[in-house]
Structures are given as C-alpha cells and as structure tokens.
C-alpha cells in the first residue's frame, strides 16, 4: 500500500458515491462532477487500490467484495471528518429543550439522580432526562447511535469496547447490608465469615459478571456464595431484609436503604476494595457542548457526594 500522503482524500467522497450508486453518471451527479471526470477518478482509485472496484455484469456495474467491505468504513471516516469540520453548536442550558438519555446502574438513579433533577430544575428547567439500565448495547451501539448520550456508574473493573472513552467519576467505600433480624451477623465481618454467608449479588446487564469484589477474593483463592443475582440494588436489599443473605454495595446506597428497610450496615472484611465508578461516552461526541455541560453537572454532584460522609446506621449488638 502506498503512503497515505500520496492519496487524494477527495477520492474517498468519490468512492462512496460510486459504490453506493453503482453507476458512473449518477455518482458524478451526486458529487457535482462531469462523467469524464468521474471515470478518470474511478481509474485513479482502481490504480491506487489495485482492485477493479466496479465490474460490468449483465445486471450493470457491481461492486467487488473489497469495495463492499470498504464502503461502511469509508462512510464512518467521512462522517467523522464532517463532524470535525462542522462549527460547534452553542448550548444554552437555561433555554435548551434537549432530552438526554443516561444509561446507569441504580446507584446513580437512587443516590445522585434525584439531586440532579432538582439541580437542573433550577438552572435548566426545560432539559428532559430519561434513564435506562446499563446493558451491553447501551455501552456500545446505543452510544454510537445517540440513543444513549452517557453511561454513568459502571464499575471501572468492567470491560468496555476499547474505542469508548471512560472517565473516573466517583469512588465509594463498599460496605455490607444484613437484615435487622439476622442475628448471625454482627457489626463486623471477617473474611471467613464473609465467604461463608449467602450473598445477594448485584449484576449489571453488560454480560460481564465479574466485579472488583470477586476479583479481590480470587487473588486469595476465595469466592462468595451467591444465592441470587439481581440487576437492582433495591431488590437485593429487600431480599437481605427477609433472609439470612448479605449484600455488598456502595456505602451511600447502603445507608439510604438502612433508613428505608429493615436492614443495617455491617463493616466488611479488612481489605475490601472500594468501587471505582466511571462515566462513558462515545468519541464521536467528545466535543458536543450539551454533553460536556451535562457531564459537568454530574461530576459536580458526584464530587459533592464523595465529600459527604454517609449516614451511619445504629449498630446492632453483636450476636451471642
């Protein structure tokens, strides 16, 4: 392959028109060239790529396999160039009526989202927000298609496609919840007690069931006993309130549940890792002023939450 500097990048536009139309005259009209100029450009492409690209058949011109394989990638490249060259749109939060879609865990939805809505009602009253659970396509195709603007709260230990941009958002101490009626669990857990207890385990919809907790245990050749997996922390907390199981979750969420349900906060085993949560967005929209503004608001609230100590629930007397 010849060096890219020897290639006329205008030929990418011509390539897209030719392979899309499979007709020299129509392709020429599409890019405002004469038919002879388009034919000359096609010959240049054939020479550079060492491929006929379009072959005459009884059904007219047909693209070669290589041309068909290149077409979607060329379109992506052209779209990226167009977005880069477009002037940046102004974003005025106090008058904008934009709807943002956020994919998140219910940590964000329960702990941060109410404060975010209240905050935006003051500074951007016409902004609309919609939430969906994090799923595999929410962190890949939906971000690219702008069905989701931002993924918030994913555990940093989770694998994501390499082309997406992940930024550290918040660090939370992990604690455990046990039912108030669960007299088998005291105020503190040793590592042995922890792995011997039944667990309600939070699992998101990305298809990756690993977590920082399981990774930490595996380094010690240990694992926890999962009796149920759920994509909803509230459901898991309610299970804990009614069974002998425990759940491990971020401290602010644990203390929120301890005020709502018959559960109490328990100190986890020594060495329990913190959870590092991220925001994720697609690089296509890295310079979107509206998205940048939304991220600023979410980072601001996350920072405030990090600096606010969680409510400490009243300890239960250690079991006899």
TrEMBL record:
<dbReference type="GO" id="GO:0003677">
    <property type="term" value="F:DNA binding"/>
</dbReference>
<dbReference type="Pfam" id="PF00126">
    <property type="entry name" value="HTH_1"/>
</dbReference>
<dbReference type="InterPro" id="IPR037402">
    <property type="entry name" value="YidZ_PBP2"/>
</dbReference>
<dbReference type="InterPro" id="IPR005119">
    <property type="entry name" value="LysR_subst-bd"/>
</dbReference>
<dbReference type="Pfam" id="PF03466">
    <property type="entry name" value="LysR_substrate"/>
</dbReference>
<keyword id="KW-0805">Transcription regulation</keyword>
<dbReference type="InterPro" id="IPR050389">
    <property type="entry name" value="LysR-type_TF"/>
</dbReference>
<protein>
    <submittedName>
        <fullName>Transcriptional regulator, LysR family</fullName>
    </submittedName>
</protein>
<dbReference type="InterPro" id="IPR000847">
    <property type="entry name" value="LysR_HTH_N"/>
</dbReference>
<dbReference type="GO" id="GO:0003700">
    <property type="term" value="F:DNA-binding transcription factor activity"/>
</dbReference>
<comment type="similarity">
    <text>Belongs to the LysR transcriptional regulatory family.</text>
</comment>
<keyword id="KW-0804">Transcription</keyword>
<keyword id="KW-0238">DNA-binding</keyword>
<feature type="domain" description="HTH lysR-type">
    <location>
        <begin position="7"/>
        <end position="64"/>
    </location>
</feature>
<dbReference type="InterPro" id="IPR036388">
    <property type="entry name" value="WH-like_DNA-bd_sf"/>
</dbReference>
<dbReference type="InterPro" id="IPR036390">
    <property type="entry name" value="WH_DNA-bd_sf"/>
</dbReference>
